[in-house]
Amino acid sequence: KDGAADYLSKPLDFPRILAALLGTQEASQPADADADLASPSLARLEWEHIQRVLLECEGNITRAAKSLGLHRRSLQRKLDKYPARR
Length: 86
Prior knowledge:
By secondary structure, the protein is an all-alpha fold. Helices cover 56% and strands 0% of the residues. The chain has helices at 14-22, 33-38, 42-56, 61-68, 72-81. Helix 3 packs across helix 4 and helix 4 (61-68) crosses helix 5.
């Protein structure tokens, strides 16, 4: 019988989730305390991803929302919540 090769047990922490997704570290190994301090927050990663998709869509909110799997208005609310730096 084959068992699970890679799994995450609860409670989860962000560095272990990211490591499991990227395949850079064994998910079953505890994350370093330093990695906790250096890792960006989930909100920050989401914001950076939204910004990348917006650039790819040349600022077109409707296309970006579709690409992100969001309703256009949901994306607009996220953008209003954290206005872009100038």
